[in-house]
């Protein structure tokens, strides 16, 4: 189309909606990383000795490791000594009620559409709000407690449920798993903890909302979800950050354990600040997410909509250890301007009759690079393992790239593994058809892209699906191809 | 011949050799810093393929022995200093001075050229043949390659080949890899396909200790066509690793790749197929498919198709599967009174023959079919 | 006059396809444009609706007083021009319902009307579905994906009913239809006829005109309208083919 170039050149993206920051008194650790900083964080949180030891061991491990270089992403070396590893809004150590929470903080989350106050709570969703390094409030706790569900900040879990934390922390993602996991294990500041007891079906969506506010600050949260036998929980994660010229580091770890017959559904809408249209600023998102289907007939399902971050390095995975366990991964990753995403999943089939399903939809526009990287590994004893993977890429414009790197390793003769991938562009005839029915080009593209991603969007809880659709349209605004 | 500096071959820490520890195996069995000198004359004729009306080139331990008199064959001593060569190419250059150049000029009548690599000797039998072939405009040729180990010890063939197709050239390239169980091979082959040229490659691997094929096709002209076919049907401990690249640098071209595998016993296969579509290469069609049947729990397949695309107006797809013979089909055949073994070999045959459907040369097609048939009957 | 085409010329690349078309259409009229393959029939439909593959090299088109050629494709649609495509495209993951809702509300916004809420939209949809005997389950599926030829064409007429255009252009709507599907499609089109709207039927064969009876028939040949007449002209073409037209044109 003749107008392509014009529209591409015109590329004026709508400003990042959540790019403001608030002035909240905070206390921070000094810049840089050392054993003293690790001790400082641990002391600040009043942690038991075993946890401090665990952190220090992780830190020493990290010192021996090097950043992974295999991903299809390019960025200048990160100066780990110029980052602040701990920043917390100045407030009472552990607010007993919302009245004790700084009203500025509550307003911050209100502005993000996350209400923490009793009257305006999102119906049916319990939220743990994490601001910079710490959890500031968790809603609906009493309701959940009646069912025996524990949903609280990670720090609180360390104090109140040390036996659970100690048993499971690092059991799915050990500290030495990779460079960023080791870093997180050393300096993680807070995050969410969730335990669903035997036979309980969690009646509402549990949600963590992450917000980076302070400058020069890394966010290193840690989430641990344990679904006991026969339980079910659906978990949502959202995130935003202010617009800043420099890059900020986010290195989180999420661990999920699903015991016998348990099911965990984990959904993410990732909207960290992606940097401006010239590629300045933005979050470096290096995240390790892994679930262990420990028990027979357990199921872990990851759904992600990735629209933000300057760099995304993220592979939510499932270790299918229990017989008949199921792993799923549904992903939409959109990149525009100078964004780089290297994302996908790993499905490790260990148990018999294990099944996995992968649906990945990549959309690249502008000068971005979008990679799918996934592994399906069927081990020797995984009799009758099944996998089906579908990876599609959509390109908008000829200055972006789409890359697919699936690794398939099969060591069992009864396994069936199928992988399909396609790459295409939005058809000019599709756009014309929409225009002939009265739609402008932008709406036509939004409609077609949402249709393309529908299989994944359908996996999201209702409230999130609507949000995600809007985000897709917003991210691609102006990038008609 | 001795190399001054030791060439470090890629070990399992190198991503592209992660599953193929050929450096370790070679280090265990050979002294790579020397090459066996040609031995006394050897009776190789009975081992050549029963083909008539074809030209033969025979290398013995890497040196061209038969076929020197063909008008378009030339042996030259050029010491290559090209950068970016991989370790096996460097090894080849360091041990072999001869490059055999084959240039088929425009106007040459269609023909078939068979290239045999005979390996012979008592110990440390290594050969580093090197070929540069160019197919002139409008020519239509078929090249066949086969290694023949007649040694008393393990053999290692490290062959280098660069091939260029001029505009409108049509070239088929057949590699038959059915050598002894103690033979090792590394085949580095690069094809450059010019405007409107048409290229077909067929790689059949049925036996050997360990085989690594690096086959890359660069589409350097628009409206070119490249079809890459491969079949590996393996048993015992045979290990075959196919690394292929289809690199689209120019627009309106087609690449189509179909590799199939059948794995029995403790055999292992690695498939890595890369498709690159560069920014200039708009209107590219690039397809790739890798299908595997695993017959034994001790067999392993590692497959990694890879698409990297920088142009938007393209149609690209890849697919790969690992699985078994269709139970339904097996049952159907058996219900008609066919034994399980026979049913298996019938279905395997049906699975495999698709790969060679477009191989139109009758003589070579029947050679391929015969090797395949024998192979599948013993596997099933 | 609703539509006035004056000396319209267009080309693709170096190839001139329309070489001076003149045509006037009044509200309430049905015009049939016939002609042998490659005469420029589908090009005319594409140029009128604003497809960018064609370059207009001369002439002008006025639609209800507006300079049509200066409008974008979507604005032409919003002004009331509807094209029933010869080959409707598939859009995976987008249901016809969702598609129509998006389109209808953008058109309404352009005209300064309020968006239809879900209830009103559904009511309108149910009403129009009956017209073309289309099943709701079809409308919930991805647009045109896996539809049969007949289903696609019926879907086009359903969309036409939903959008209530002033001028409908049916591009080879009869191609690929069996006689029952043809009847259903034609009945739908006839039911939608009012004194306020007009229809241009582009077709190679006259059989569609048995069902959608035209007021005027024009024969397009080598990018020009070489003959115009009434209903009879279509029958004459049916009987004698296009050769005599070609001969007449050559003689001029």
Give the class of chain B from helix and strand content and strand pairing. alpha/beta
Order of helices and strands of chain C: EEEHEEHEEHHHEHEHEEEHH
What's the total helix number of chain C?
9
Beta-strand content bin of chain B: 35-45%
The whole-number mean of residue pLDDT values of chain C reads 91
Structural class of chain C comes to alpha/beta
> What is the fold-level CATH name, i.e. the topology of chain C?
Rossmann fold
Strand order of the largest sheet of chain C: 6-9-10-3-11-12
Helix content of chain C: 25-40%
Top-tier CATH class of chain C:
Alpha Beta
Overall shape of chain C: globular
- The total strand number of chain B stands at 20
Give the count of structural domains of chain B. Answer: 1
Report the uncertain regions of chain B. Answer: none
**What's the N-to-C terminus distance of chain B?**
45 Å
Query: Main interface pair?
Result: A-B, 36 and 34 residues
Please estimate the helix content of chain B: 10-25%
The CATH architecture term of chain C is 3-Layer(aba) Sandwich
CATH H level of chain C: which superfamily? Answer: P-loop containing nucleotide triphosphate hydrolases
How would you summarize what this structure contains?
The complex is a heterotrimer of chains A (481), B (380) and C (252). Chain A contains twelve helices and 23 strands.
Primary descriptors:
heterotrimer, A: 481 residues, alpha/beta, eleven-stranded mixed sheet, ten-stranded mixed sheet, 23 strands, globular, disordered N terminus, B: 380 residues, 5 helices, 20 strands, 15% helix, 45% strand
Account of the protein in words:
The complex is a heterotrimer of chains A (481), B (380) and C (252). Chain A is α/β, with parallel strands linked by helices. Chain A has one domain (2-476). Helix content of chain A is 23%, strand content 34%. Chain A has helices at residues 3-10, 35-44, 49-64, 103-111, 141-146, 154-160, 162-168, 179-187, 428-436, 441-452, 454-457, 462-476, and strands at residues 26-28, 87-89, 125-131, 134-138, 150-153, 192-196, 205-211, 222-227, 232-240, 247-250, 253-258, 263-270, 282-293, 299-306, 311-314, 317-320, 326-335, 340-349, 355-364, 369-378, 386-395, 401-410, 416-425. In chain A, the strands form three sheets. In chain A, strands 5, 6, 8, 10, 11, 13, 15, 16, 18, 20 and 22 form an eleven-stranded mixed sheet that branches. Chain A has a ten-stranded mixed sheet with strand order 4-3-7-9-12-14-17-19-21-23. In chain A, strand 3 (125-131) and strand 4 (134-138) form a beta hairpin. In chain A, helix 3 packs antiparallel against helix 8, helix 6 (154-160) packs across helix 7 (162-168) and helix 9 crosses helix 10. Chain B has helices at residues 22-29, 87-95, 327-335, 340-353, 362-379, and strands spanning 55-60, 63-66, 73-77, 98-104, 111-119, 125-127, 130-135, 140-149, 155-165, 170-178, 183-193, 198-207, 210-219, 225-234, 239-248, 254-263, 268-277, 285-294, 300-309, 315-323. In chain B, the strands form two sheets. Chain B has a ten-stranded mixed sheet, with helices on one face. In chain B, strands 3, 4, 6, 7, 9, 11, 13, 15, 17 and 19 form a ten-stranded mixed sheet that branches. Chain B has one domain (15-324). Chain B is globular. In chain B, strand 1 and strand 2 form a beta hairpin. The longest helix of chain B is centred in the C-terminal third of the chain and has 18 residues, at 362-379. Chain B is an alpha/beta fold. Chain B is 15% helix and 45% strand. Chain B has five helices and 20 strands. The model of chain B has no long low-confidence stretch (mean pLDDT 91). Chain C has 252 residues and is an alpha/beta fold. Helices cover 38% and strands 28% of the residues of chain C. Chain C contains nine helices and twelve strands. Chain C has helices at residues 41-49, 73-79, 96-110, 118-131, 136-140, 149-163, 179-191, 231-240, 243-251, and strands at 3-12, 15-25, 30-34, 55-63, 66-67, 81-84, 91-95, 142-143, 167-171, 198-202, 216-221, 224-229. In chain C, the strands form three sheets. Chain C has a six-stranded mixed sheet, with helices on both faces. Chain C has a four-stranded antiparallel sheet with strand order 2-1-4-5, covered by helices on one side. The relative contact order of chain C is 0.18. Chains in contact: A-B, A-C. Strand 22 of chain A pairs antiparallel with strand 19 of chain B, so a sheet runs across the interface.
